[in-house]
Specification:
heterotrimer, A mainly alpha, B mainly alpha, C mainly alpha, A: mainly alpha, globular, B: mainly alpha, 1 helix
């Protein structure tokens, strides 16, 4: 049974990603939005190197957040436009597979966007990582997982209501505070070489938050997708 | 501390403004709801269309 | 539709007694609030550090307590709705959310007013104030969601999910911010309850609780009436009466 469920998940991931790929405009505009946000942050913060480096982690995460919300509503857009959501629900199989499929597809998409946005941030904010790049990449992935889980969940509702562009951030952003806080703090600590050994504590918190919010999203999705 | 009295007064004034303001909004909402119900009852009973 | 109507389907009779006792509660609550505030203001001596500013605590702290209590009601009512599917739980949650948003906003404003002369700033990133701000955003998001969803079943299910997740988030935010401040070695905000002020705080706490209960009950009642009107209109439309026949 589980293997069948996993096949279903994979099918949904593939479907979402290929329809995304067919519209390259989707990826390009989202990635560009991230870069643009970073640029604006740079202008707003001013050219002083110290200020930029201090703000780098925060600015990077905010840029990812703003870019990401564009992607989440779109991941349901394709079904809504084609009227494909009802058939998807009628097909026998547990609902969590739909959520899992969309979550994975969104995660891959967001990580791809980050592959563009992170280097740009490093350049614009004159980042020097004294803590090594690998732990930093780990934090990016962990933070993205929490972000995408909540985003995929709230988008399942926002995309089907009026004023979806404003409703998704309104619902999602307050929920992202713990993940954002721990990701930004862990990133910041790693970038500055982690003098107080703080990053480890933040990373553990981040993992805990991911587990909590992923579980909660999965459980809640059952209730919101049916109706 | 005469200066801090301003803050204290502001605090209490704002509190009462918000509480009385919402109490008033509740009066309006209750009345609106009752009007809607009467309207809907009439439509439902077929006396109005 | 498979769920109980909030009131009798006979739209003609509306229990008048219920309404009158709610209004009496309102009168009592407002009088109690006046009394408790006077008690607090007139009987407490100025604080060592804060002076007369301490008196702001008599409105700020009870507002905070009751805001979180309202939130608790939202969470429990949402759980009850998901469990039993009875519409009145959804309406209760929505009413508590609206009143809760009011008290949360009030808490933040009063906290800001207190903070300015005390610390010289209009805002501090301390755990309580910050999680209260997040709470307000969650309430606002909840109410916005409800206003953008037309179908009552969908609105109820989605609100319940959003409400419960929001409830989960608030203590997590509180802990994160506390940890955040500890890491950056910022001192925690001073405790504001000197034993001398406890009586005044409790009196005001109870008075505000009465006001909260009155507001929620009255809002809930109006919500039930509205929902009944909606159902009658739907039924009429389905059976071919009314302007959409």
């Amino acid at each position: 049974m589980l293997r069948q469920d996993l096949k279903r998940v994979r099918a949904i991931v593939w479907k979402d990603l290929t329809s995304e790929r067919r519209s390259k405009a989707g990826f390009n505009s989202v990635a560009f939005m991230g870069v643009l946000t970073l640029l604006l942050f740079g202008f707003a913060l001013g050219p002083d190197t110290e200020a930029l480096r201090a703000a780098a982690a925060g600015a990077l995460w905010l840029a990812i957040l703003f870019a990401g919300v564009l992607a989440f509503n779109r991941s349901y857009q394709l079904e809504l436009d084609g009227g494909a959501l009802e058939p998807l629900l009628l097909y026998p199989g547990p609902r969590w597979t739909i959520f899992a499929g969309k979550l994975v597809a969104n995660l891959l998409f967001v990580l791809l966007v980050e592959a563009v946005v992170v280097p740009v941030a490093i350049i614009l904010f004159q980042v020097q990582s004294r803590g090594g790049w690998v732990p930093l990449l780990g934090v990016m992935v962990l933070g993205s997982v929490g972000f995408v889980a909540l985003g995929t969940f709230y988008a399942s509702m926002a995309s089907r209501s009026r004023a979806r562009e404003v409703l998704l951030p309104l619902l999602l952003f307050p929920m992202l505070v713990p993940v954002l806080l721990s990701s930004a703090e862990a990133s910041s600590a790693l970038l500055s070489g982690d003098p107080m050994r703080e990053a480890g504590a933040w990373i553990r918190l981040l993992v805990a938050f991911d587990v909590i919010f992923i579980t909660a999203s999965f459980l809640a999705f059952e209730h919101v997708i049916e109706v | 501390m005469p200066e801090s009295n301003g803050y204290i007064i502001a605090a209490y004034v704002i509190t009462w403004v918000m509480i009385l303001g919402y109490a008033f909004r509740l009066v309006v909402v209750t009345r609106q709801a009752r009007d809607r119900l009467e309207q809907a009852s009439r439509v439902d009973a077929g006396r109005e269309s | 539709m498979g769920h109980a109507l909030p009131l009798t389907a006979d739209g003609q009779s509306m229990p008048a007694t219920g309404q009158r006792s709610i209004e009496w509660l309102g009168v009592v609550a407002l009088l109690a609030l006046v009394g408790a505030q006077l008690l607090g203001i007139l009987t407490s001596a100025p604080d060592r550090d804060m002076g007369h500013l301490q008196k702001i605590m008599y409105v700020h702290v009870p507002a905070a307590w009751n805001a979180f209590l309202a939130f608790f009601v939202v969470a429990v009512a949402s759980l009850a709705y998901l469990w039993k599917g009875q519409e009145r739980h959804d309406l209760l949650a929505a009413s508590a959310a609206e009143v809760g948003a009011l008290f949360t906003a009030l808490t933040l404003i009063l906290g800001s007013i207190w903070g300015r002369p005390t610390w010289g700033v209009w805002w501090t990133w301390d755990p309580r104030l910050t999680s209260t701000a997040v709470l307000l955003l969650i309430f606002v998001g909840y109410l916005a969601l409800r206003s953008f969803v037309e179908d009552s079943d969908r609105r109820a299910q989605w609100s319940a999910a959003v409400g419960i997740l929001g409830a989960l988030n608030v203590p997590i935010v509180y802990m994160s911010v506390r940890w955040w401040r500890t890491i950056h070695q910022l001192q925690s905000s001073p405790s504001t309850v000197d034993p001398e002020y406890v009586t005044g705080l409790r009196a005001n706490g109870i008075a505000v609780l009465l006001v909260l209960t009155y507001f929620i009950l009255k809002r809930y009642r109006a919500a039930c009436v509205e929902r009944l009107a909606e159902q009658l209109a739907e039924r009429a439309a389905l059976e071919g009466r009314g302007r959409y026949a």
